[in-house]
Specification:
376 residues, eight-stranded parallel sheet, 24% strand, 2 domains, TIM Barrel, alpha/beta, elongated, nine-stranded mixed sheet, 10 helices, Lyase, Ornithine Decarboxylase, Chain A, domain 1
Length: 376
């Protein structure tokens, strides 16, 4: 039996760490609860939230959010949609445009889970035609939101006349029902809150104008789904919108640094170990590309108990750092680190260890990390 951790321990340390394999991902239950409380407080109520589940991909966190009154969710993949439906979610938006065989698979998923109200995005006439044909063939009706490009230039159709025409086409096609508008402003990442708010408000004006134009023409616009984590509190000031933050559930080192005004806590930590000491000032950790998101430049983690570490080499299974007190560390010592980008980091791990009251209480399988929504 492991010795208990002292009560004055740092928040990330826990009893039994010596029995947890590395590299491992840890979720801290109390911090997740705090983040969920803040999400609901900022939104003004759980009914205004449609949180993105791409960050955690876990049915346990879907179920916990539903216990708190959150009843709508947003997903990026069919696997995430399936996971949410199996967890009991009543309303799931696929924030992606189905193309190719995904149209067929999307219809099959929708019909497999009739208790869940599904919707998806589209920004293209060919996609609308494919969805319409598939829905008619399956003798069903699916809800579609038009995806708007408000400046990120990743997906969506620009607000304006073309978007109005596309929405009209959506309204006219058999098998489809207009679900409203979706506007993700992922390009708005100003560190200064006033600058971020000004840009967010400016980007929202054409969305609001388009909604009013469509309604004046007698077209139904049931919802506006807007924003991401950085602009979540700004959109929360508006009436009549659904708010879809995602990273807020777990937070990460990148957002801590970028958005000091946001009151969320890092709740996901990587446990890694020293596996070699190749030189007096270097430590090699078992925290390679396969354990932490590596699409961004270094630093890819913020070390919590390793001071002054500077990454010098990163490969599939190894992270080599130089640090002034490397001589104090032994092979096998535990190092804790917060990922810079938590969403793709979670997707690298089959399981997470859930830490509560200073010890690992559960181990959750990351259900929706697979791309396949059903077993063949």
């Amino acid at each position: 039996m492991s010795d208990p951790v002292p009560l004055d321990r740092p928040w990330y340390e826990f009893a039994g760490a010596d029995s947890v394999s590395s590299p491992s991902l840890l979720f801290y239950r109390e911090r997740i609860e705090k983040n969920l409380e803040e999400m609901i407080r900022i939104a003004g109520g759980p009914e205004r939230l449609r949180p993105h589940i791409k960050t955690h991909k876990l049915p346990g966190l879907i179920e916990r959010q539903m216990e708190l009154g959150i009843c709508r969710f947003k997903a990026a993949t069919l696997s995430e949609c399936s996971m949410a439906a199996q967890a009991g979610a009543g309303d799931v938006l696929l924030a992606y445009q189905p193309v190719g065989p995904s149209v067929r698979d999307w219809l099959e998923l929708v019909l497999t889970f009739p208790a869940t109200r599904f919707s998806c995005l589209a920004d293209d006439t060919a996609t609308l035609a494919s969805l319409s044909a598939a829905a008619v063939a399956r003798k069903t009706v699916i809800q579609v939101l038009i995806d708007l490009d408000v400046g990120f230039h990743r997906t969506g159709i620009a607000t304006g006349h073309d978007a109005e025409l596309l929405y009209s086409e959506l309204n006219s096609l058999p098998g489809l029902r207009p679900g409203g508008l979706h506007a993700y402003d992922g390009h708005i990442t100003d560190q200064n809150l006033d600058d971020r708010a000004a840009r967010c408000d400016e980007a929202f004006i054409p969305v609001s104008t388009l909604r009013d134009t469509l309604i004046s023409r007698g077209l139904p616009v049931p919802r506006l789904v807007v924003g991401g984590s950085p602009t979540f509190p700004i959109h929360a000031r508006r009436e009549g919108v659904e708010l879809s933050p995602g990273t807020t559930v777990l937070w990460d080192a990148g957002y801590v640094q970028k958005f000091p005004d946001l009151p969320f806590l890092p709740a996901a930590v990587l446990l890694t170990r020293v596996v070699s000491k190749p030189s007096p000032d270097r430590l090699c950790l078992d925290l390679g590309h396969k354990a932490v998101a590596s699409e961004m430049p270094h630093p890819r983690v913020e070390f919590l108990n390793l001071v002054g570490a500077n990454p010098v080499m990163h490969s599939e299974e190894h992270l080599v750092v130089e640090c002034p007190d490397a001589h104090r560390w032994k092979v096998g010592d535990v190092v804790y680190a917060v990922p810079r980008h938590v969403c793709p980091t979670v997707a690298l791990h089959e399981q997470v260890n859930v830490v509560e009251a200073g010890e690992v209480k559960e181990r959750w399988t990351v259900t929706a990390r697979s791309r396949w929504w059903r077993k063949e």
